[in-house]
Amino acid sequence: MIEISETWIDSQAPNSAAIKNGNDLIKKGKFTTLHHSGDQQVLFGTCAGSGKTPYAPSVDFVIPDKPVMRCSCPSRQIPCKHVLGLLYAYAQGKLFSTAAVPDELAAKRENAEKREEKKAKETADGVAAKPKKVNKSALKKKVTAQLEGLDVLEKLTHSLIRRGLGTLDTKELKVIQDHVKQMGSFYLNGAQIQLRKLHMILSAGGNPELTYTYAAEQFAIIHAFIKKGRAHLNAKLQDTELALDYESTIEEWLGHAWQLSELREAGLVSPETELIQLSFLSYDDSSRQEFVDCGYWIQKDSGELHCTLQYRPYKAAKLMREEDSCFDVVHVPALYRYPGDMNRRVRYESFNTRPVEEQDIARIRQYAAHSYAEAIKKVKNQLKNPLGDPNPVMLLHVEQVLVDEEGRLFISDSNGETLGLQDLLDDSTVNLLKYLPDDSLKDVSMLVMFDHQTQTGQLQSQPLSIVNKHEIIRLLY
């Protein structure tokens, strides 16, 4: 028998409205039939809709951790309210009768099984999938267009700098907006994001000195992007294979969306890996015009800190399931790593979970950095790269949490070195430390996010979670 909880169903829903609508279908008696297959791996039924023909939702659990959800309705949400209603009906103990799987659904199921078998063969024993054939002629045209776009971007930034930030008015801001749209025609998604961020900085108002400081930083990032992007694209044109760069993040900055097959081909995959999530946050990134779901994970066998990222564009956010916190140990058959430096982005296709045990907690604590001087050196090396993540995270050993006469909080390592704590994100966590017991503030491991404060020149840090001897205390979920 398939075990389905309402909590699990909630986690599959794209939004809270879909949860309510799915439950409402049951309350209103909209399901005319409820069935499961003989092997109880498939749930299916019919649900009255707005037309004469009822909708046919189904859920196939042939792969338990990757159920396939289908429906004949026109909704673009996956799963739709009809599928959610079907699952809620099962979880609530509604009567499901045994029936043969409809022919159309059986055919789709068979095709899906064949695809899974093919994929399993490709990944067995580390055998890479056959790489996708690249249209070199089209790729060369794209690279040429991107180089042209970088030239346009460079002319714009030089023009703005020559005029001086103090003389910029609404006309210049409109020019920046126009160039944001223009960068899309040159296949430069990264340039669009950075120009949009520059426009937001210059149009925000407030303290002019602070605005100019942030704007100068943004110009430096754009300049580095132009310089590194141009060098990379020119080198690519000289390469007969037009090969991708698997070491740095420049491909993503230039708008490349990595496919798992590409990462597998480059050897950026680890088999049979366990991950434990230490922190999770969702935020609105206006420069990307997307909502971002970000999880920070530690790899149990190596101590590496990774991040998972899901981008939900404004226009499609209602159709996409928002990621959520995970409090279990996650076992993945294959962990795919993106190119990058600290806190590499990772992805996985399937997973199993188990509860976190004390031995897992002990293993996490072993990976905490005991020397703040060495940790800061590593962070500074990361921040030297303008195209790197400006907010790297590290797991630090905390001998104790200190408070000065002004009420400011610091963490100290075993050598007496200290780091000041300050809220960097919109969500405050520093004040939460005052409510924790002493045993969670001494001899613990702390996941910390760093940021370089341009105004003061200091490196600041914000606590995200604490790992004591018995549990992980999340300050951000």
Model description:
- The protein is α+β, with helices and mostly antiparallel strands and 477 residues long.
- It folds into 4 domains: 6-126, no CATH class; 136-238; 268-356; 366-474, Beta Barrel (OB fold (Dihydrolipoamide Acetyltransferase, E2P)), CATH 2.40.50.
- It is 36% helix and 24% strand.
- The protein has 12 helices and 17 strands.
- It has helices at residues 6-12, 16-27, 81-91, 103-123, 136-163, 170-185, 189-203, 208-238, 250-253, 260-265, 358-366, 372-383; strands at residues 31-36, 42-47, 58-60, 68-70, 97-98, 269-285, 290-299, 305-313, 329-337, 346-347, 352-354, 393-403, 409-412, 418-420, 442-453, 458-467, 472-474.
- The strands form 3 sheets. Strands 6, 7, 8, 9, 10 and 11 form a 6-stranded antiparallel beta sheet that branches. Strands 14-13-12-15-16-17 form a 6-stranded antiparallel beta sheet. The chain has a 5-stranded mixed beta sheet with strand order 4-3-2-1-5, covered by helices on one side.
- The protein is globular and about 70 Å long.
- The two termini are 32 Å apart.
- The model has no long low-confidence stretch (mean pLDDT 90).
- Keywords: Metal-binding, Zinc, Zinc-finger.
- This is SWIM zinc finger domain-containing protein.
- Residues 55-91 form the SWIM-type domain.
